[in-house]
Amino acid sequence: MKTLSENACFGGTQGVYSHASKATGCDMTFGLFMPSEAADGPVPVLWYLSGLTCTHENAMTKTGAQGWAAEQGIALVFPDTSPRGDGVADHDDFDMGQGAGFYVNATQAPWAPHFRMWDYVTDDLPQLLGAHFALDMSRQSITGHSMGGHGALTMAMGLPGRFRSVSAFSPIAHPTSSDWGRKQLGGYLGKDESAWAPHDATLLMQSRGFDGPVLIDQGADDQFLDLLQPEALAAAIAKRRQPATMRLQPGYDHSYFFVSTFMEEHVAFHADALYA
Amino acid sequence: MKTLSENACFGGTQGVYSHASKATGCDMTFGLFMPSEAADGPVPVLWYLSGLTCTHENAMTKTGAQGWAAEQGIALVFPDTSPRGDGVADHDDFDMGQGAGFYVNATQAPWAPHFRMWDYVTDDLPQLLGAHFALDMSRQSITGHSMGGHGALTMAMGLPGRFRSVSAFSPIAHPTSSDWGRKQLGGYLGKDESAWAPHDATLLMQSRGFDGPVLIDQGADDQFLDLLQPEALAAAIAKRRQPATMRLQPGYDHSYFFVSTFMEEHVAFHADALYA
């Protein structure tokens, strides 16, 4: 593991590190905020998964999450959104390939060798973090924005017992029935749609739900509302009677200005679960 | 004036606008955060001047200032740091020319035609803002980072009665004796150093001070400490017995992670003065 930068931030440290990933077969970069409390012992972890076109950096610099995490004594992990590099496959479109890994393990050419973001986020990176930092890996929660909200919800429901709480900002909520999903799941996982189901938050909510609290914020003026399909997830939550708070926020769009506005509440929501 | 974007943000609106500036003779872009209170009438204004290489955008996306301004019912203005465009002079170095206007009115070739950032920030842009937005221009305060901290301090002291309070994050505090200053003031204003004095916070503090509260935060681990020379300004503050709070923050560097860490306190400091 290589330290790329470390900056004092809200009494703690915002670091950026890179490492050779077994899962993705390439070097991966991630951001990690450690609150001051980590000096005295392991602290709980909140994962933040980012959206299309983002790297580890966007949320780390634009959401203001560190201030709230510092207040709660919680670490924040900001993984990248895909494998990257010259030897890694890519696509001309912004919503496929590098910067758009969709948090799945690709099985199809040309993606299969490197696009294993599910394993990277759920296995490879947690092992590295647990080994190198004062993190209590028995207390983890997860959130994310857009494609990252999709990743957060699918990982939380797909790995029962791993995360104590899950939240999402304007998640891609029903990718198997959206142009933000069918193209990518088809490309990464192949034409057999049964392989897509574990990567659709609405289908997972229908089939199994989540054993813990759920918080979802969605801007009512989001320019991508038709692609995100929050109404499908809302219906699945209602039908299952899943304990969840789902809020349509009037006036808000898909931007980081929206995410930063509600970040305080999301971090406090996760802190309640992590310290319960 | 042209609206480039408007995003809902902390109950208010983060806008980006462009306009043809008389002062700089080119199109200028600025950011403006209006809190929800502006719907009911004019709100006070806090100016944020940015540092070398920045545009209107950096502080607007990285400091988290809008959340605190929304809490206080204060508007935020984020001007650009120089004139820009194909017809505008530039320099190969990052600390001179476009992105590095140093908040002066240049008198020397090739800078004189456009590099009039003092007039732009103190005259041109305030007139535009007062005419187009629900802003109470009788209640203004000013802050900034690095080169922008220099601008905030020199404008606050250079225009008595204009600003109710001034603060700065790691300002260029004594440019007439620093490589961040001598080169630029010489280039923009010429060899006669008497023309530089109104653009040196330490010299202004020695000669006139500020009739209001002053807050300065400086990271003790700032990589540019030798160029910033906070000790010169501290000595001038002490000698004048200027009411001021000047803090060296252990561990912090020159980055936006430092600025965002102390932004809440700066906005609250200005709110005290603006609502006094």
TrEMBL record, chains A, B:
Any Gene Ontology CC annotation: cytosol
UniProt-annotated catalytic positions: S146 (charge relay system), D222 (charge relay system), H254 (charge relay system)
Catalytic reaction list: S-formylglutathione + H2O = formate + glutathione + H(+)
Keywords for the protein's UniProt record, in alphabetical order: Hydrolase, Serine esterase
Keyword set includes tRNA processing: no
Top EC category: hydrolase
Name of protein: S-formylglutathione hydrolase
